[in-house]
Amino acid sequence: MQATTQPVFFKQGPKPFSLLLIYASLSLTLLVVDVRWQILQPVRETVSVALYPLQWLATAPISAAQQVGDYFVSQTALQRENRKLQDDKLLASSELMRLQALRQENTQLRALLSTRAAHQGKGTLTEVLYNDRDPFTAKLVVDRGESSGVRLGQVVIDPQGVVGQVTRLQPLTAEVTLISNKGHTVPVQVVRNGVRAVLYGLGPENPLEVHWMPLNADIRSDDVLVTSGIDGTYPPGLPVARVKRVDRNAGSAFARISCEPAADIDKHRFLLILDERRDQPARPVEQAAKPARRGAHKEPA
Amino acid sequence: MPVSSQLLKPVKRSFIVFTFIVALTLALIPWGPMVRAFLPDFVALTLLYWCMNQPRHVGVGWAFWLAMLLDIADGNVFGQHGLAYCATSWFVLGRHRQLGMFPLWQQALYVAPLLLANQLIMLLVRMATGSGFPGWSYFVGTLSGALLWPLLSQLLQAPQRVDKPAEIQS
Hints:
The structure holds two protein chains of two kinds.
Chain A: H1 2-5, H2 16-37, H3 41-118, E1 124-131, E2 139-142, E3 155-157, E4 162-169, E5 174-178, E6 185-190, E7 196-200, E8 208-211, E9 224-227, E10 239-247, E11 256-261, E12 270-273, H4 284-298
Chain B: H1 13-28, H2 33-38, H3 42-53, H4 60-74, H5 80-94, H6 96-101, H7 104-128, H8 140-157, H9 165-169
Helix pairs in contact in B: 1-3, 1-4, 3-4, 3-5, 3-8, 4-5, 5-7, 7-8
Family (chain A): Belongs to the MreC family.
InterPro entries (chain A): Cell/Rod_1, Cell/Rod_MreC_2, MreC, MreC_beta-barrel_core
Function (chain A): Involved in formation and maintenance of cell shape.
C-alpha cells in the first residue's frame, strides 16, 4: 500500500520480510522435497556442472601443489630406492663372487680329497696362510704345524702335482719351500722313458730347469717329469713338471731344459701334506766309523 | 572508525559478484578437517557484509541463490543453507542503517550471533533430516568469522574508497 504511494525513486522492490517469507518457504519446500522424494537430483547435477569451474579453481592449486609434491617425493623416493638397489646389487655381486670362489674351493677340495684317497688316505689337508714375506724365496706358510703331526721333509702336493716340501716347523704352522725356490732340487724321472734327472728351482717367477743333462739326453718338450723317489724324500711317481723347451746349444756341455711345474704352485689355497714315510736304511757306516775313529784316536793317547 | 563517516564511491555490481565468486571458491577449497573447523563461513560473511552495506544490491534473493549453490556444491540437502542465509540476511537488511553506523568491532559483535544463528539453523535442519551432531568444533567457525569481520570489511570496502581524501575535504 505504501509502495504504491512511494515515488519510483525510492522503490526498492518487495520488502525484505516478504522476500524472506518467500525464500524461506521455498527453502523449506526444497528441503522437504529433497529429503522426502529425492527428485531434485537432476537439478543438483545440472547446477554442479555450472559449479565445476569454481570447484576446479578451488582445487587446482592444491592438487597442483600435491602433484608437484608427489613429483619431488617420488624423486627422492626413487633416488633412495635406486641407491638401495645399487647397494643390494653390490652386496649380491660380492655374495656371488664369494659363491664362485667357494665353488672353486669346493672343487679343489674334492680333488684333493680324491688325491688323498689315491695316497691311501695318508696326508694332512692344510690351508695356505700366506706367502712368505721374503720376495726372493718361494715359500708358503700353511696352517698345520708340529701339533698336527707335520714333520720336516714332508712333501706337499696339490691335485695336479708336487708343490714343495716342508722345510721349517712351528707348533701351529709350517713353512713349505716350493719347488721353484732357488736351489731347491727334486729328483725326477721322465715318464716316457724313465730317464732320471734333477730338477732345479731358479727362484720365483722363473721356470724350473733340469741341469746337468748331456746334449743328447732323450728329453723332449712336453715330457712329463715325475718324482723318481731316489732321494727318499719325495715318494716316487708324483708329477712335478712338464718340459717346456729344450735348448741344445753346441757351445755348452749340457742341454738347457726349461720346465713348468705341473702343480699350480702359487694359486691354490688348500694343499695336501703327504705322510708317506719311507723307511730308509740307516747309515751304519758313519755310526760304525765314528767309534772306530775315536778308538783310533784313543790309541795314540 | 564508523564506515558511514567516509565518503565512498558507488560499488560496482561486478565487484560484488566477484567477491561472491571468491568466497564460494574459498568455501570449495578442500581444506583438511582440522582447518575446516577453524575456518569461517566465507560466503555468509560476504553476504552479511553486502547486505549491511549495499542493501539495495544484495538481499534475501542473493542469499537464497548463493545458499542453493553451496548446498549443491557440498552435496547437502537443499535448503539447508537457504533457510539460514535468508534469515540472517533479512535480519541484517532490516537494521543496515543502524549497523552501518557502528564501528567495525561492534559490527563484529553483532555479526557473531548471526553467524551462530546460521550454524544453529543449519544444525537444526541437518538434525531434523537425520544427521548426527558434528561436535562442538562446528561452532568454532563462528568465532573466527567474527574476528575476521573487521579485516573483511576493510578489504571489501577498499575499491570504494576515494584515492585522495584531501580533495574531498577542500
